[in-house]
Design brief:
The complex is a heterodimer of chains A (about 180) and B (about 150).
Chain A (H helix, E strand, L loop, with lengths): L7 H9 L3 H23 L2 H17 L11 H16 L8 H4 L9 H19 L3 H12 L4 H7 L4 H21 L4
Helix pairs in contact in A: 1-2, 2-3, 2-4, 3-4, 4-8, 7-9, 8-9
Chain B lengths: L2 H11 L8 H13 L1 H18 L7 H17 L5 H8 L2 H25 L3 H4 L2 H8 L13
The chains are: A mainly alpha (about 180), B mainly alpha (about 150).
Chain lengths: ~180, ~150
């Protein structure tokens, strides 16, 4: 019997044993974040949907490989999503801002909103121009709010290597956005 | 931590010192407490971090429901990984390669051992018959036809 309070570890144990209901529960718990992460990486909702579905199918197929002592389920899931997004090899390019969501501060001033959208567009372009792993570092740390250690685990690197990757990404973005005159 | 160090880390890790590498946090807080200039630099850096964080990304409920429905159905059509693949999958690739080489070597050695110990037509042939085949005086029979 599956309880709403079942931990990810407990559900994964059942998924590894072929329990499809436990898989449904686990997918329901994490699908939204998986899609959001994929969309931030690809900048494309339809790619993000495909990546999220493929990621959960891999969770189902390879559930027996997951080792809770080595990584949290979410770390493993994020790693699968990131790898699929990078493998896809598509740059986000320009992401329609309607799909990216409105800025949280919705002022009635139309000019201000247009300026914000233009700024968001420039940031998206600068992010899209980054190498895949640098973009992944910014997405995980700044957009998903993971700690240095968590983000390093997702990208299977040491914390110091991740910190260095993040620093390079930030420097590149700062230069790019300064050129665009918004940083 | 000097002011220069603080500003360098601010560039590298962003405007939340509580998210910096653990060994830097206490010194960063102390530097901030003593320097108004660093606090001002931190505020400026916060606006850059807000740009990087981007707007909130909304994933609608019906989109999530559609994906869950699709992935649930697809999972029920797909078999899970077999036990053998699970065992191999947990091993590093070099270990898997070594395991395969060891299996081949074992097959070669046991094959050779069986060849040496089991009776085969060649192995049971009389010793003299073998020598006759190697002897120069082997007679070639004439088939009776002459020209």
């Amino acid at each position: 019997m599956i309880e709403a309070s079942d931990s990810d570890d407990e559900l994964m144990g059942r998924v590894a044993g072929g329990d499809a209901a436990a898989f449904d529960r686990l997918a329901a718990r994490h699908m939204r974040r998986a899609v959001a992460l994929a969309q931030r990486m690809t900048g494309n909702p339809s790619d993000a949907d495909e990546i999220a579905q493929e990621a959960f199918l891999r969770v189902w197929q390879h559930a027996g490989r997951w080792d809770g002592a080595r990584a949290a389920f979410t770390t493993w899931l994020y790693r699968i999503v990131m790898n699929l997004a990078i493998d896809r090899g598509r740059r986000p390019g320009w992401s329609p801002l309607e799909e990216a969501g409105d800025p949280p501060d919705e002022r009635p001033d139309a000019l201000a909103r247009i300026a914000e959208r233009q700024t968001a567009e420039r940031v998206n372009r600068a992010l899209a121009a980054l190498p895949d792993r640098q973009r992944a570092a910014v997405v995980l740390f700044h957009q998903e709010g993971l700690s240095l250690r968590q983000a390093a685990e997702v990208l299977t690197m040491s914390e110091s290597a991740f910190a260095s990757l993040l620093a390079r990404a930030r420097a590149t973005l700062k230069t790019a956005l300064a050129t665009a005159d918004i940083a | 931590m000097t002011d220069e160090d603080f500003l360098r880390h601010l560039d590298d890790y962003g405007a939340s010192p509580e998210r910096w590498p653990p060994e830097l946090r206490a010194a960063a807080e102390a530097a901030l407490a003593r320097s108004p200039a660093l606090r001002s630099a931190l505020e400026h850096a916060q606006s850059f971090d807000r740009l990087l964080a981007g707007p909130a990304l909304a994933v609608e409920d019906n989109r999530v429901d559609r994906l869950l429905s699709a992935v649930g159905a697809a999972a029920r059509q797909k078999p899970q990984e077999s036990v053998v693949m699970l065992l191999l999958g947990r091993m590093p690739r070099r270990a898997v390669a070594g395991f395969c080489v060891a299996l081949l070597a074992l097959g070669w050695v046991t094959g050779g051992w069986f060849a040496g110990h089991l009776d085969t037509p060649a192995g049971t042939a009389p010793r003299g018959q073998e020598l006759a085949l190697l002897n120069d005086e082997v007679v070639t029979l004439f088939d009776g036809e002459s020209r």
